[in-house]
Amino acid sequence: MTTDHEDGDINPFLPTVHPLKIFDAAKSQGRFLYACAPMVRYSKLAFRQTVYHYGTDLCWTPMVLAKEFNRNQVARDSDLTISSSGPQPHTIVQFGSNSPTELSHASSLAAPWVSGVDLNCGCPQSWACAETLGAALMEKRELVRDMVVETRSRLEADGWDVGKEKHVDSLKGRSVSVKIRVHKDLRKTMDFITTVIGNPHNRNVDWLTIHPRTRSTPSTSPINLEALSILTEKFGPQLPILVSGDVFTLATLPYTSHLLDSLPIFTSKAADTTPSTKPYIPKLAGLMSARALLANPALFAGHETCPWEAVDVFLNKVARAPLPLKLAVHHINEMCGPGYGPDKRALLSKKERMKLNECGSWIDVLDYLDEVRKEKDGGGNGMRRYA
């Protein structure tokens, strides 16, 4: 585990807020909890800090292989980077595992640095499923139950408070959660969730994230709203439920809820005007976004497209929590292109983004962005606001 602080004194910045308290805070404000999904390569510290700056409540790391995390210090240092200079985003580390022993041990190693641990039961990639990871675990409900039970027991033995609502105010509170997909036969999904939750009065997980697509459903297909409605109606009273998928803008969600009444919307011309055609899903607690946040880190602040200010924030974060140049340029390209909502305005044209990709150093990147923005500002002073 590495930090972006040089003196090694990171204790004042360790997580002290239980994630369930963040759920409660969002509910008391009459809104959804906002979450940044685990994204391979992209959910690194600088990006998590950027979306946190714009109101994202919980940030997931990319999926970390528990077995490698346990055995390799290099893997720990590269896979889990935390902040010790400024606000630490409320971070959930997501593990890929098929072993109660491996998952519980990895969770024990990570617990001092994160707010909670999450088991990936949703990744559909063939390599993961071949290793009985990700979505393959949707066929192993008893194994998933055993993994979360052993993980909670290990964290408790280590001295962490894992009593869910009982420990919501504890400075040492830590959460255990699961992210899932759905089956074609929804009865199998209900059996899976019932098994993993266990006793609803003393459940095994703090909350559940549902991606309402099957393992074989492409991301270009709409989420299964009927499945989402049925599952949240049945299990929403037992524990908080996040939805992952098709959260492209706050104005164009494919469902309605009483928690949508006071959403921050900075531009309204793209807002959906036919809410009566959407299912009403009242027991949904939060929204998790992946691709749309990548293109617009300010999504949960109500921006329908990415503002230049978000690019500035990201570059300042990268200056303190460095990323490989090509990865950071990819982030900038995503932010400067058209987003996933109906408003397709872009900060840079396709030609300008292609030229950005040709930059071979940070000096080239910053000089080019200065030059383009100066032109777009009509010959202004450019930006050069990075520390």
From TrEMBL:
<keyword id="KW-0507">mRNA processing</keyword>
<dbReference type="InterPro" id="IPR018517">
    <property type="entry name" value="tRNA_hU_synthase_CS"/>
</dbReference>
<feature type="domain" description="DUS-like FMN-binding">
    <location>
        <begin position="36"/>
        <end position="251"/>
    </location>
</feature>
<dbReference type="InterPro" id="IPR035587">
    <property type="entry name" value="DUS-like_FMN-bd"/>
</dbReference>
<protein>
    <submittedName>
        <fullName>Dihydrouridine synthase 4-like protein</fullName>
    </submittedName>
</protein>
<dbReference type="GO" id="GO:0050660">
    <property type="term" value="F:flavin adenine dinucleotide binding"/>
</dbReference>
<comment type="function">
    <text>Catalyzes the synthesis of dihydrouridine, a modified base found in the D-loop of most tRNAs. Specifically modifies U47 in cytoplasmic tRNAs. Catalyzes the synthesis of dihydrouridine in some mRNAs, thereby affecting their translation.</text>
</comment>
<dbReference type="Pfam" id="PF01207">
    <property type="entry name" value="Dus"/>
</dbReference>
<keyword id="KW-0819">tRNA processing</keyword>
<dbReference type="GO" id="GO:0017150">
    <property type="term" value="F:tRNA dihydrouridine synthase activity"/>
</dbReference>
<dbReference type="InterPro" id="IPR013785">
    <property type="entry name" value="Aldolase_TIM"/>
</dbReference>
<keyword id="KW-0560">Oxidoreductase</keyword>
<keyword id="KW-0285">Flavoprotein</keyword>
<dbReference type="GO" id="GO:0006397">
    <property type="term" value="P:mRNA processing"/>
</dbReference>
<keyword id="KW-0288">FMN</keyword>
